[in-house]
Write a structure and sequence with these properties.
By secondary structure, this protein is mainly alpha-helical. It folds into two domains: 1-31 and 181-241, Helix Hairpins (Orthogonal Bundle); 33-165, Helix Hairpins (Orthogonal Bundle), CATH 1.10.287. It contains five helices and four strands, in the order H-H-H-H-E-E-H-E-E. The chain has a four-stranded mixed beta sheet. Helix 1 runs antiparallel to helix 3 and helix 2 runs antiparallel to helix 3 (96-179). The protein is rod-shaped.
Length: 241
């Protein structure tokens, strides 16, 4: 019967509460490690940099292909211009009309070459910018990857330490729980679930340490004189005198 529970047993219940509180704190810490949150942020950044670098690489490749196309076009125009100029100055063309057409063709080829060279300069500037962007993104990705690796090692070490502490407290909790009456543990668990993880609290200086309410002097006297399981009138937690 809970009315017959010895005060030494109730004091041991506070030890059980202490283990449960420690376990809760460790679980909360494990779930909200700042290092783990930072690691998630760095991984998101790393994914973003990977995507940006992939886009920048494709753009640089596209610009390189355009540069190669223009350079090829210039080479063809130069070859054709050289061929037509050779005909023009060789004396092989004597017909004035044909000679005029050939001169016009050479001038058109030179203008085409000039336009292509202007386009080539623009594309080369674009390619330099694209390469610079790729290098910057690659450097940022490398830095983020290194930071992620370091944070991952830190988080693993912290979690390993927390898990070791959790194991120790859970083992201690099991040992204490086994010493206590089953009906007392059952009541404690019910109250603890309903009261945010605190099912038992000490009475210190006339105040319940669960809700920090100062109890009336007569109530404190009654609690000190009474035996068995007592409950705080305010928060209904198990009160250990």
């Amino acid at each position: 019967m809970l009315k017959d529970v010895d005060r030494a047993v109730l004091t041991r219940l506070l030890d059980l509460q202490a283990e449960d509180s420690a376990i809760s704190r460790l679980q909360l810490r494990r779930a909200s490690l700042p290092e783990a949150q930072r690691l998630a942020e760095v991984k998101d950044l790393l994914d973003e940099l990977e995507s940006d670098l992939d886009i920048a690489t494709k753009q640089a490749d596209e610009i390189a292909r355009e540069q190669a196309r223009i350079e090829g076009e210039i080479s063809l125009v130069e070859a054709k211009t050289g061929k037509e100029e050779k005909r023009l100055f060789s004396g092989a063309v004597a017909n004035p009309r044909e000679l005029g057409a050939l001169q016009a063709e050479v001038e058109m080829l030179k203008r085409k070459r000039s336009t292509a060279e202007d386009s080539l300069l623009e594309v080369m500037v674009q390619r330099d910018d694209a390469v610079e962007t790729m290098q910057r993104l690659a450097s940022e990705r490398e830095g983020a990857a290194s930071q992620a690796e370091q944070l991952s090692a830190t988080v693993d070490a912290l979690i390993s330490d927390i898990d070791a502490q959790l194991g120790s407290h859970q083992e201690a909790r099991q040992g204490i729980s086994a010493e206590l009456p089953e009906d007392l543990v059952r009541l404690y668990e019910q109250v603890r679930d309903a009261k945010g993880g605190v099912g038992a609290a000490a009475l210190v200086g006339g105040a319940c340490q669960g809700c920090h309410t100062q109890l009336a002097a007569k109530e404190v006297e009654r609690l000190r004189a009474a035996g068995g399981v007592q409950r705080c009138d305010n928060c209904r937690r198990i009160l250990v005198v």
